[in-house]
Amino acid sequence: MTYKPFNSFEVAQSQFDSIAAKLSLDEGARQLLRHPMREYGFAVPVRMDDGSVHVFRGFRVQHNDARGPCKGGIRFHPLETLDTVRALAMWMTWKCAVADLPLGGAKGGVVCDPHNMSMQEQERLCRGWVRQLAQNLGPNLDIPAPDVMTSGQHMLWILDEFERIHGQRLPGAITGKPVGMGGSLGRIEATGFGVIFTLREALKLLGIRAKDTTASVQGFGNVAQYAIRLYQQIGGTVACVSSWDQQDQTSYAYRKPGGIDIDELLGVTDRYGGIDAAGARDLGYERIPGERWISEPVDILIPAALENQINAENAGEIAGSVKVIAEGANGPTAPDADSILSKAGIFVIPDFLANAGGVVCSYFEQVQSNMNYYWPKDDVLGRLDLKMTAAFAAVSDLAEKRGIPMREAAYMIAVDRVAKACRDRGWI
Ligand code: NAD
User: 300 and 210 in contact (C-beta within 8 Å)?
Assistant: First the structure.
C-alpha cells in the first residue's frame, strides 16, 4: 500500500466540489473557486544574530476577493506548506462569507521555527516578509492578522515596515494589533462570546432555556474561557472542563457538583490554558481522564481545543442527553462523525459559523483603524452579537427549509454568496 500524506487543500477542494454540485454551480464558477485567485511564493533572506544569512520561504495566498479585500492570518511553522496555506485561504473565504463580512479570504505563512529564533531575528523576518509583498497588501487589498506562532508584536513590526514603504500611517493594513496601538477592545472575548451568541440562538430555536442546561467543554484556553463566562451569564452550568497537562503529557477533565466556578479555576490555570491538577484538587474538583469530557451526561458539548476530537470512534460515547454541539475549535468534528451526530438528532453549530466571532471582531478592528476612531468595548460586543445572530439565522433558516444539517447549510450560503459576487462582477 502506498502512503498518501494528508493534504488539507485536497480536503478543502473536495468539500467545495460537493457543495458546488448541490448548488448546481456552473463550470466557470467551479473552476474559479476551487483554486486561489493569486498566490505569492518568495524568498526572505534574513541576517541572523551570528552574522550568517538564512533564506526563509514565505507565502501569501489570496483565494478570492469578489466580496471585498482579502483577510487572513500569517502562520510561522516549520512544516508550513503552500497547500496548507491554500486550504486555509479558501476556508477564510467561506468563513467571511457565512458571517456576511465584506471581505474575501487569504492566508500567509513562513517556513520557520520561532522557538529557535531570537526576537530580533523574528523582527527581521517579519519586515523581510512584508517587503516582498508591500504592493500586494493594504487596507483595501489584503489585510493580514496573527495566527499560529505569530502575535500582536509580529503584526506591529509588519505594519511599521509596510507604513515605512508607503510613507504614511495605514493602521487598517493589519489586524490583531495590541489595544492602544490600533487593536480593538473586545477581541479577546470575541471568539468565545461568538460561540455563545450562536448557542443562545440554537437553544431558542430548539425551545430550550439556557438556565435549564449543562455543558461539557473541551479546552480551557482563550475560546473556552470566554465561552464559559458568557454561557454562565446566560444561566448555563458548566459541569465539566478539560485541558492539556504539560507535566503529565496527557489531558484531564475536571468536574465539581454544582458546576465549575470559572474565576476560581482561572486562579490555578497557566497562560496556555493548562489547569494545575493539584490546585484544582485543593479547590474540590474531581479529576477524570481527559477524553471523558465527551461522555458527560450534559445537554451541550463545546469542543474548544483541537481538531478531530469527535470522530467515528468516539461519537458513540456521546450521552443521549446531548442536544447541541457548538464547535468552538476549528475542525473538531471529523467528517466521518457527522452522520452519527445527525442520526442521534444532535444540532451541530459548525465551526466556521460558531467561531467566526474572531474574524468578525478583526473586521471591526480594521473598520476602526481605517477611521482612526475606536469604539468602547460594549459597542464592539453589541455589534458582534448582531452579526453572529444574523449569520446564525441565515444558516438555520436554510437548514430548516431544505431539511439539511447546519454544516451543509453554512457551506451552501457561503459558497453561493461568493459565487454570486463573482457573477455580479461579471467575472464568470
Ligand atoms: P489556546 O491555546 O488558548 O487554548 C487551547 C486549550 O486547549 C488549552 O486549554 C489546552 O490546555 C487545551 N488542550 C490542548 N490539547 C488538549 C486535549 N488533548 N484535550 C483537552 N484540552 C486540550 O487556543 P484557543 O485560542 O482557545 O483556540 C482553541 C481552538 O479554537 C483552536 O482550534 C483554534 O484554531 C480555534 N479558534 C480560535 C480562535 C481565537 O480567536 N482564539 C478563533 C477561531 C478558532
Answer: no
